[in-house]
Amino acid sequence: MRAPNDRYHLPRYLLSSRDKAAVNRANFTGYIAITLLTLIPWMTWSALIVWEAVRNAAILLPVLMAAAWAGSRLFRHSSEALYRHIAFGLLFCAEVFGLVRYTKGH
Questions:
Q1: Which residues contact 22 (CB under 8 A, 6 or more apart)?
Q2: Torsion-angle region of residue 47: left (phi > 0), alpha (psi -120 to 50) or beta?
Q3: By the 8 A CB rule, do 91 and 19 touch?
């Protein structure tokens, strides 16, 4: 059986490299874009997308854009080490959330 958090392996792999933060951000952006470009049509074709989710996404889009803008301003002059620590921390939180959610369902 596959672990519920397999999707976090690539970001951890990328963060463990010696690449600069800008290169990692570009790689994450490409990874997410390719994932979404394949996932959204498949989910639409499979009738897995409901209108409530589309509405919620439209409502939350400005919040996401504002957070991305604020994050780019906050980390503009930060160190590579701080970027990696925060990125690993966020991945850790996402994995814990995924595990808790997965175990509650089983």
A1: none
A2: left
A3: no
- Residue range 38-51: mean pLDDT, rounded: 88
Residue 86 in tokens: 């925060």
Measured CA to CA, the distance from residue 17 to residue 42 in angstroms comes to 32
Q: Rounded to an integer, what distance in angstroms lies between the CA atom of residue 62 and that of residue 65?
A: 5
Least confident of 2-6, 8-12, 50-54, 82-86: 2-6
CB 24 within 8 A of CB 87: yes
C-alpha to C-alpha distance for 88 and 94, rounded to whole angstroms: 10
Q: What is the pTM of this model?
A: 0.55
Residues in the chain: 106
Determine the distance from the C-alpha atom of residue 27 to the mean position of all C-alpha atoms in its chain, rounded to a whole number.
12
